[in-house]
Amino acid sequence: GEALEVTREVNCVTDFIHGCEDQLQKLKKQKEKGLLYGIPVSIKDHINCKGHISSGGMVKFLGQVMEEDSVIVQVLKSQGAIPFVKTNIPQTMINYDCSNLIFGQTLNPLNHEKSPGGSSGGEGALIAGGGSILGIGSDVAGSIRLPSSFCGLCGLKPTGNRISPPACGDRTFVLAVTGMLGPMARDVDSLALCMKALLCEEMFRLDPTVPPLPFDEEVRLRGNPMLPIAQKQS
Fold first, then answer.
1. Which of 42, 44, 120, 138 is catalytic?
2. Is the pTM of this model over 0.85?
3. What homologous superfamily is domain 2-215 in, according to CATH?
């Protein structure tokens, strides 16, 4: 409901992912609850979801319905999260705005005369507008960091090859910098929880090219300037 209201205002959602209610009922029957149990998660347009398109903002890909979930969506589901919407991007994603000829222009919910940034602009707008509490964007040269900044959010571009890529068909750009999927949210703790959930045995099993290194909570806390000095030294 909240996501629908926000997208009516700023045009940030491109698709609602079907089967959410079924997935929730399935989760309730599982004995082990994942780290993201019951959390609705929004995902950027180009991340594959079974039964949905990954347009990249380009008309030529509108007919290609994906046959399976990308690894990150499978891992989110295994951790109890519920991917529920796909969000807007600029055409080809190589842009710091958020507009394409299919879905139109996404606005910044804090100021409708401004851009939400890009390329994960739909994510930035939806989370800042209150329609999602956790989202997955992607970043080569600022595509998570720019919308996070423009929309007053927190975002993380992980180290290259830390998370399995989106697997969006033949849309491969040859880039000097590794593009990475990463979390966007309103606070750093949410980013940390998401990374901890993603860097799990299921991720390493589904994609053997990802180094099997779990999230290191101690390293994160050592780098936290908000912790008392005594706690840092202990």
1. 44
2. yes
3. Amidase signature (AS) domain (3.90.1300.10)
